[in-house]
Amino acid sequence: MVKIVHDELAELMGGEAAELHLNNKPAIILMSGLQGSGKTTFSGKLANMLKTKQHKKPLLVACDVYRPAAIEQLKVVGEQVGVPVYSEIENKDVVAIANNAIKEAKAKGNDVVIVDTAGRLAVDEEMMNEISNLKNAINPDETLFVVDSMTGQDAVNTAKEFNDRLDFDGVVLTKLDGDTRGGAALSIRTVVTKPIKFVGTGEKMEAIDVFHPSRMADRILGMGDIVSLVERAQEQFDEEEARRLQKKIQKNKFDFNDFLGQIEQIKKMGNLKDLASMIPGVGKAIKDVDIDDNAFKGIEAIIKSMTPKERTNPEILNQSRRMRIAKGSGTNIQDVNRLIKQFDQTRKMMKLVTGTNMAKMAGMMGKMKGMPGMPKF
Predict the structure, then answer these.
(1) Same domain assignment for residues 203 and 309
(2) Which parts of the chain fold into alpha helices (H)?
(3) Predicted pLDDT at 171
(4) Average of pLDDT values for 328-355?
């Protein structure tokens, strides 16, 4: 029964992940949506994803000429992701701004132009006319409707009104945390029959995922989303660094510098509660639990209060050193002792696991030696 419900949910939400169709050069992406839906932030996330994963050369365009500091906000976002922003301070003609930006992109070799537009607190005729005229003028490859998934039924009504006027190509759901916002995905897809292409899963510029209906069905049913969790881990995974760490673990040389590096990688993967909820069975268990995104701060403070020698050689951390570290990190001696004890246990476990895997591999290689046609090792 669970499988039938899962498959039906996935089918209702589109069945397969929908790709962006960027056929022209430069390809143009027009962002639409209400004020506060997260258009500007998402524009930066999308630019960052296209730049890092697809090796594109995007240009962000500031066409929100009404909201105070909107242009400045886009410039800050562009600076965060290392993507240029085209803007015209005095000009209020969004069609002219967009056309000038496209010329700029052609001249400077930008292959994707992302146009950030103005939103309103509610749908109005003036707003719709402006964005409709803009779409007709620049003929975008993709028109995306950005909606805050926390607005519930209002999100569905707004999506319908925008689609009636713009006939957009896809939906972006922002603020989709854990398994609590699946209803918006279901409702919007059913009402506007347009694919949901992306979801925003946090505030960081890396917190953007391609929308996979089957994975969302997993979340709605409380089955987790282990595939997305692995994908996020792979994005932060450095093969060379992993080899280096494996050698250190085998020699029991894994130190606090390596531990700090692992924490940094986890933090880059996104919101901690969102990550935990992707593990099957965990989502429901932590539904009402508040997981602080700053949970690592205390650990980082303790490690950073150590000297380089202490980080590299944890075994020299005697009582006087620990007391100094506690004072320097703003924690107490119990916190420092607890971290060092957990670190020692983790190091032993990692060595044991790595050693067991190496032993298994050696055993497999030994068995393969005797097999016909295998080379002699």
Answers:
(1) no
(2) 2-12, 39-53, 70-81, 94-108, 125-138, 153-166, 182-192, 213-220, 226-236, 239-250, 256-268, 272-277, 282-285, 297-304, 308-312, 319-329, 333-369
(3) 86
(4) 82
Assign residue 331 the CATH number of its domain.
Answer: 1.10.260.30
**Mean pLDDT, residues 64-82 taken together:** 87
Same domain, 136 and 249: no
Residues 144 and 274 in one domain: no
Domain boundary among 175, 195, 223: 223
User: Which pTM value belongs to this model?
Assistant: 0.60
Q: Which of 21-25, 46-50, 347-351 has the highest mean pLDDT?
A: 46-50
Tell me which residue of 193, 146, 169, 159 sits closest to 15, measured CA to CA.
Answer: 193
* Most confident option among 123-137, 143-157, 281-295, 347-361: 123-137
* Dihedral (CA of 93, 97, 103, 104) sign: positive
Report residue 278's pLDDT band, with 50, 70 and 90 as the boundaries. Answer: low
Q: Does residue 137 carry a pLDDT above 50? A: yes
Domain boundary among 223, 250, 274: 223
Host domain of residue 201: 2-223
Strands, sheet with 58-63, edge to edge from the N-terminal-most edge strand: 85-86, 58-63, 112-117, 27-32, 142-148, 170-174, 196-200, 208-210
Contact at 8 Å (CB) between 182 and 220?
Answer: yes
The reply to whether 355 and 244 lie within a common domain is yes
Q: Are both 160 and 141 inside the same structural domain?
A: yes
Together in a domain, 180 and 258: no
Distance of alpha carbon 303 from alpha carbon 159, whole angstroms: 48
